[in-house]
Amino acid sequence: MKSLLTCTTCALVWALLLPTAHALTRDDLSEQARALLPPETAITLTLKEGKTVQGLLVSETSRDYTIKLKEGTMTMERTYPRDQVASVKGEDVAGALATVLLRYRDLLPEATADTKFDTMLTVVDEYLEKATASEQWPEVSALKAAILAEKKQADRGMEKVDGAWLPPVQAALKRYDLAEERLRAIEAQYKGIERDPYTGDARAKAFYNRLREGQRLIARELPQTLNTTLQNLLADQEHALAISEVDAFQKFILTRVLGSGSDAQKMRKEDLDLYQEMDMNFILRIQSQVLDAYYAAGGGNEVPRGYRPDEGSGMVLIPGGYFLRGDRSATIGDDTFPPQIIHLDPFLIDLHEVSNAEYRQFYTYVRDNSDYSMEHPDAPPLKDHTPRGWSLEEFSGDDQPVVGVDWFDAYAYANWAGKRLPTEAEWERAARGNDARTYPWGEASPGKLFVNLPSGRSHIEKLMNRQLAEGQSPMQLPSVTWEVDRKSPTQAERMLVTPDTPMETTYGLRHLAGNAAEWVQDWYGANTYTHAPILNPTGPDQGESRVFRGGHYLSPDNDATTFARGHIGKNKKLSTGMGEDGRPLIGFRCVKSIDKR
Question: Best exposed site among 97, 212, 318, 353 by fewest CB in 10 Å?
């Protein structure tokens, strides 16, 4: 009942708002609008003798009217002198014109960039201006909105393929895929048609060859199409659309031209040879071009409206936006190939790795309450969350990161704390910021900085030993984790050897590289980046092991890069967070999504 009353009220208000207007005649319309109407006009003559005549106007002169009349089944023409006519009433053409205009709705699904949208809109606007009292006015108004939506896409340089508006590169690739579907259908119908020579249906073979050549032409013209498209999109600051075009081009090259993604082990020799001959730096150059324009326009710093930082939360905001993940120097077969521009929503991340003291609160809660509600569904029943690092005194300090935990331990703690593990993409975003840096702190080698890696500790040892008196034994730093909030080991601080370079990320995060490696949410997949979506990628749906990031206190420098990906591989002990020699290596930090409302 409420719905019916609402509709009735709306209709009444609409009726009151419509201005009173006289019947619309042909004479009220422009020549363009009149051309759309049927050639004959209904007319009513009132003769001076009082008789009324209704029919279709055939002709009108200064002397008379000729009307086509229908009497029964007979149709005849009659002429009436003007001096016998008392009044003339023409038809209200508003309904007829609306009927013609509404046929545009059937044309819009097939509209293309060449469709004469402006011509349509001219007549529609004339109708909306002159026929405000027409019952079909709301329908024509809705039609105008639909035409404007189609025109907007065409004006943006979009192309309609198979009923959908697409940007030029994706439109070309859609045509490529449609041709591929037809090729497969022809191959199923005409066996062996893909081979030469083919002695079957010559016309089918010719058509098949035209489709194949059309595909080749699309592939050959695609780089220039992309270049032209990017110029237009970047000029209009359509960064998201530009990035989607670059991504579509990259995926096409890797999955269709080469055919095997980034897996060199499965790639055919001819594809591998083709890859060696290709200028893959073309993709890197256009990625840089698009990102430079995006950052120059202020992109990469998306913060939720109304967001206020919680100074006591121990977490920092990582702004949303596009960034480049993966290794720009990687080649096919590497698990950091290909570099890909992706977009992440803003999120919060722990400033420090989770410490033993923080983890102990969770451990004690589970032990004392027998509450396993925070567990991952695949976790073992009655999961024991004791960190293996606690069995070694040198890793058990309250302020050291908890290490020797498996992925289920990290998941359960994060869930218990009202947080979650970061996705691999989120971790990399937090590490490299907007400048695609090699290490979380920048480009400087770890061997020249205060980083808890073998090379970093060696650098600190040299600085410390310079202060020793002659004859004193050289000092050596233990290979253990540092406290989560310390920039240097306590031994160096006691000797007043302090870092002169801040070992933090763009966002102030500590020990994102070195110290403890860190579990992330994703399953490991060697080809993950080839097929990943642009928006908030979360990795494969399944796998054999989870990913960890950042390297640890025993890692070589290359494991500490922002793009290096750790996984269990042949070292099955890593699944427990331990190294082959029984030393604890892996811990974690948490993130929290931000409510978008």
Answer: 212
Give residue 159's Cα distance to chain centre: 19
How many CB atoms within 10 Å of residue 28? 18
Q: What is the 3-state secondary structure (H, E, C) of 140-207?
A: HHHHHHHHHHHHHHHHCCCEEECCEEECHHHHHHHHHHHHHHHHHHHHHHCCCCCCCCCCCCHHHHHH
14 pLDDT more than 50 = no
Q: Work out the number of other CB atoms within 10 angstroms of the CB of residue 493.
A: 13
**Span 565-573, average pLDDT:** 92
Beta bridge partners of 85: 47
Task: Give the whole-angstrom CA distance, residue 196 versus residue 34.
Answer: 59
| pLDDT tier for residue 248 given thresholds of 50, 70 and 90 | very high
DSSP letter for each residue of 536-558:
S----S--SSEEEES--TT--GG
Query: What are the residues facing 593 on neighbouring strands?
Result: 347
Residues β-bridged to residue 164? 161
Rounded Cα distance, 432 and 560, in Å: 12
- CB-CB neighbours of 205 under 10 Å: 18
Q: Mean per-residue pLDDT for 444-473?
A: 93
Report d(CA 88, CA 110) in Å as an integer.
Answer: 43
Query: 253-265, pLDDT tens digit by residue?
Result: 988 888 655 555 5
208 within 8 A of 196, measured Cβ to Cβ: no
> Which residues, listed in sequence order, are joined to residue 45 by a DSSP beta bridge?
53, 88
- DSSP lists the bridge partners of residue 59 as 66
- Dist. CA 589–CA 361, nearest whole Å: 15
Q: Note the pTM of the prediction, 2 decimals.
A: 0.84
Instruction: Report the C-alpha gap between 564 and 125 in whole angstroms.
Output: 59
3-state secondary structure of 593: strand
Which residue type sits at 101? Answer: L
What number of other Cβ atoms are within 10 A of residue 5's Cβ? 9
- Helix and strand totals (H; E) in the chain: 17, 15
Q: What is the enclosing helix (H) or strand (E) of 75?
A: strand 74-81
What strands lie across the sheet with 85-90, from one edge to the other?
Answer: 74-81, 64-71, 52-60, 41-47, 85-90
Tell me what pLDDT residue 11 has. 39
Residues 166-181: b if buried by 16+ CB within 10 A, e if exposed:
bbbbbbbbbbbeebee
Q: What is the DSSP pairing of strand 517-523 with strand 586-587?
A: parallel
Of the pLDDT bands very low, low, confident and very high (cuts 50, 70, 90), residue 270 is low
CB contact burial 327-341 (16+ within 10 A = b; e otherwise) = bbebebbbbbbbbbb
Q: Per residue in 296-321, pLDDT tens? A: 999 999 998 888 888 889 999 999 99
Residue 397 C-alpha from the chain's centroid: 43
